[in-house]
Each structure stands twice: as C-alpha cells, then as structure tokens.
Amino acid sequence: MKNIFDKIRIVLVSTTHPGNIGAAARAMKTMSQENLYLVEPKIFPSAEATSRATGADDVLAATTVCSSLKEAIAGCDLVIGTSARTRSIPWPMVLPRECAQTVSEDKYSSVAIVFGRENSGLSNDELELCNLVLQIPTNTEYSSLNLASAVQIICYEIYLLGIYESRVESAETDSPLVHQDKMEMFYQHLEECMVDIGFHDVDNPRLLMHRMRRLFNRAQLEESECNILRGILAKVQGKIK
User: For residue 113, is it left (φ>0), alpha (ψ between -120 and 50) or beta?
Assistant: First the structure.
C-alpha cells in the first residue's frame, strides 16, 4: 500500500490562491499522499496555506517548489495531466478510477499527476509533456471543480485501490481456503454427528444436508476454520458416547 503512494507526485501548476495549496495538501494527507510539487506558485509559503492545510503542515513543509513543469516531472516515467476542457486534438484519456489502476502498475516507478491553474487549467504546451489526460466526469451544465476537490477525488481513488490491494495481500497471508476434498470429509463428519445427536434422520433426510452444504459453501471456509469445526464435532461425538 505504501509503495503506491511513495511513487506519486501531486503537481500544482501556477496556483494563484495560497489557500488552494493548503486545501490540496489537506486533501492529500487524508488519502496518505505526501509528495506535493508546486510550479511557480503565486504566493508560497503562506500563512493562509498553512491555515487551510489543517494538520497537513508536514506536507507543506516537504513541498518541492519548481520553476517549470519540466523540472517538476523530471525522473517520472508516467505523467498524467488533468483537464476539464475538450481539446481540439484528441488525447489518450482516462477517468479517475482508470488513473488509479494505471499508476498502481509495477512498471511505473515514479508518477506525476498534474493539476493546472484554477481559472484556465493546463496549456496545450504543458499537456504535450503528459502521457495521458485525466478528466473527472461532472454535470455537463456545470463542470467546474475546486482545485482541492479535484485533488481529493484522484487521491481517493488511488487510496481506495491501495486499501483493496493491501487487503488482498493480507488475505493471502491468512489461512488458505480449505480444499474441496477436505470439505467433503467435513460434510460426512457433520452428517454423522447430526445423526448421533438425533438431529438428522437418514431415513427422512429432506433437504437438511443440501441446506448445510449451501451454507458452508457460501461461507468459503479457511482450512483453520474447518479444523475448528471438525474439532467441535469430534468433541460432541465424544460427549454423547
């Protein structure tokens, strides 16, 4: 999870209002992003930026200020520029969720996601430095997003993917799922135990075992869980004998 975040730079180009820088830093920190790059900000550092950061002072303190976009994206093997406008020349386009999936790929070691000016976005020359263009779908009648809001949406999608991958990795380290042959042994054991305690009549079985199979198949038992259940059944059988 940490690796995804470490390789991403959030780049803000020519931000005019220092409050937007602080708000963007706050949005980043809530989503575990820490690498903020500023290209020719009008005012920075700023007390207003610090005030709007609300606890993300460490992100502001570590911010890298650059004199050009080329400097900000130096060393990156993937650069994604954001744009709300349709360009006359078609550009490879991704949506926020696709962006998150792309930047998480192992083949990219350093990624820059570039946000343009509050009033005009990125210029065509700046977009030419980007591999992909990212657009956030909005109401077509009102497509304007606050800079910090746009940063938050993108960072959220990356964070969400990071959480998912972390959970998958965690699941892989847990007890493996029980194999089907062992499940069949469990079902036999369960049926024997239910017969022993008088809960299951083999001469009039109805749908009991069918329902029990459906229940445990739906649960997808881990091997350790199956062992626990087999142990309980063995204890029950031991008590009644």
Answer: beta
Tell me the pLDDT tens digit for each residue of 126-141. 988 999 999 998 887 7
Number of neighbouring beta carbons within 10 Å of residue 167: 11
Residue 142, domain extent:
2-173
Cis preceding-peptide flag for 41 (omega within 30 of 0): no
The CA-atom distances, in angstroms, between 46 and each of 40, 50, 60, 66, 227 are 14, 6, 10, 16, 61
Q: What is the CATH number of the domain that holds 27?
A: 3.40.1280.10
Do residue 191 and residue 162 come from a single domain?
no
Q: Tell whether pTM > 0.85.
A: no
Same domain, 125 and 205: no
Tens digits of per-residue pLDDT, 50-100?
999 999 999 999 999 999 999 999 999 999 999 876 655 566 789 999 999
Amino acid at 205: P
Q: How far apart are CA 7 and CA 28, in angstroms?
A: 14
Q: β-strand 93-94 against 36-39: which pairing, if any?
A: unpaired
Domain end marker among 173, 197, 221: 173
Q: What is the DSSP pairing of strand 8-13 with strand 111-115?
A: parallel
Where is the domain boundary, 147, 173, 199?
A: 173
Token pair belonging to 149: 């809001």
Nearest to 134 by CA among 106, 100, 110, 89: 100
- Residue 206, number of CB atoms within 10 A of its CB: 9
